[in-house]
Specification:
heterodimer, A: six-stranded mixed β-sheet, five-stranded antiparallel β-sheet, globular, B: mainly beta, about 0% helix
């Protein structure tokens, strides 16, 4: 089955700096790659996703890049703010999300004011 | 904004007891899921449900687990005889099938 590796496990940045989180996946059939933000005591919330027919997607301060050949994808957050502090999970799935998501192990992002 | 709702938010039970976790998915969604997250660890898939039957399940979802959609709105996860290692946060999720998966706030299960 699919295996998703995520790095780093913790990331501390100064407010205004950029943060990058990287994931690799194992199943070349995966074609849907969402990123979730989880705040303390809450469920994961989708922040951005990318499908395998696209190499990059941007939404304001958040961008995701996908390299299908290398089977890796990354989350980029620019101009970080304290409210970006949370745990971020990458995930991968076949069939554009109708199949089960396989999650990475999570990255705890701390934005220092 | 429509949301997935879960009850209870926290349940404490004795080992060996049966537990039912309840979820109300978003009303026009067709695919329903249960995931779990042991404290501090990754979110793990348990089971997916579509068209009134299980469409996929993980190795975690053994005979102690069952799911049901008893009416048009509720989606339940039953653990027949809880074990200590079942202690976790259980998340219900739903989607139309177009990609975005909406998660509930979770039900924390503590097995003593």
């Amino acid at each position: 089955g699919e295996n998703v590796e995520q790095h780093p496990s913790t990331l501390s940045v100064q407010e205004g700096d950029s943060a990058v989180i990287k994931c690799t996946y194992s199943d070349s059939a995966s074609n849907y790659f969402p990123w979730y933000k989880q705040e303390l005591g809450k469920g994961p919330q989708l922040i951005i996703d990318i499908r395998s027919n696209v190499g990059e997607k941007k939404d304001q301060r958040i961008a995701v890049t996908l390299n299908k050949t290398a089977k890796h994808f990354s989350l980029h957050i620019t101009e970080t703010q304290p409210e970006d502090s949370a745990v971020y999970f990458c995930a991968a799935s076949i069939n554009t999300g109708r199949r089960a998501l396989t999650f990475g192990s999570g990255t705890r992002l701390q934005v220092q004011p | 904004e429509p949301e997935v709702t879960q009850t209870p938010s926290h349940q404490v039970t004795q080992m060996g007891q049966e537990v039912i976790l309840r979820c109300v998915p978003i009303s026009n969604h067709l695919y329903f899921y249960w995931y779990r997250q042991i404290l501090g660890q990754k979110v793990e898939f348990l089971v997916s449900f579509y068209n009134n039957e299980i469409s996929e399940k993980s190795e975690i979802f053994d005979d102690q687990f069952s799911v049901e959609r008893p009416d048009g709105s509720n989606f339940t996860l039953k653990i027949r005889s809880t074990k200590l290692e079942d202690s976790a946060m259980y998340f219900c999720a739903s989607t139309t099938g177009g990609g975005e998966l909406f998660f509930g706030e979770g039900s924390r299960l503590t097995v003593l």
